[in-house]
């Protein structure tokens, strides 16, 4: 199964770290929230770095 990054926006502090680290995956949507782009596959290194740098610990892989 493809690994897809997911966000827990309830905990997101809107620091924009993920947008800087991995802009091809993390976007700010029209409503002003951070979201995960709809990609067929995700760059694992970049997402891992965003996960480890997120101060709110709200990015995770959904492997279901
Ligand atoms: S790095 Fe984490 S806390 Fe910061 S904007 Fe991204 S998801 Fe939110």
List keywords for this structure.
binds iron/sulfur cluster, two-stranded antiparallel sheet, Alpha-Beta Plaits, globular, two-stranded antiparallel ribbon, alpha+beta, 64 residues, 4 strands
CATH architecture term: 2-Layer Sandwich
- Given as residue ranges, the uncertain stretches (5+ residues, pLDDT < 50) are none
Distance between the first and last residues' Cα: 7 Å
Helix content estimate: 10-25%
Protein name: Ferredoxin
Pfam families: Fer4_13
Keywords: Electron transport, Iron, Iron-sulfur, Metal-binding, Transport
Function: Ferredoxins are iron-sulfur proteins that transfer electrons in a wide variety of metabolic reactions.
Outline of the structure:
This protein is an alpha+beta fold and about 60 residues long. It has helices at about 15-20, 45-55; strands at about 5, 25-30, 35, 60.
Description:
There is one protein chain. The chain has two helices and four strands, in the order βαββαβ. It has 64 residues and is α+β, with helices and mostly antiparallel strands. It has a single domain, classed as Alpha-Beta Plaits (2-Layer Sandwich). Strands 1-4 form a two-stranded antiparallel sheet. Strands 2-3 form a two-stranded antiparallel sheet. A hairpin with a 5-residue loop joins strand 2 and strand 3 (34-36). The longest helix has 10 residues, at 44-53. The radius of gyration is 11 Å and the shape is globular.
């Amino acid at each position: 199964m493809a690994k897809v990054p997911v966000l827990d926006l309830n905990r997101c502090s809107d620091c924009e770290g993920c947008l800087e680290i991995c802009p091809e995956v993390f976007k700010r949507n029209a409503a002003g929230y951070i979201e995960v782009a709809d990609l067929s596959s995700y760059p694992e290194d970049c997402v891992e770095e965003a996960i480890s740098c997120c101060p709110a610990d709200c990015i995770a892989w959904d492997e279901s």
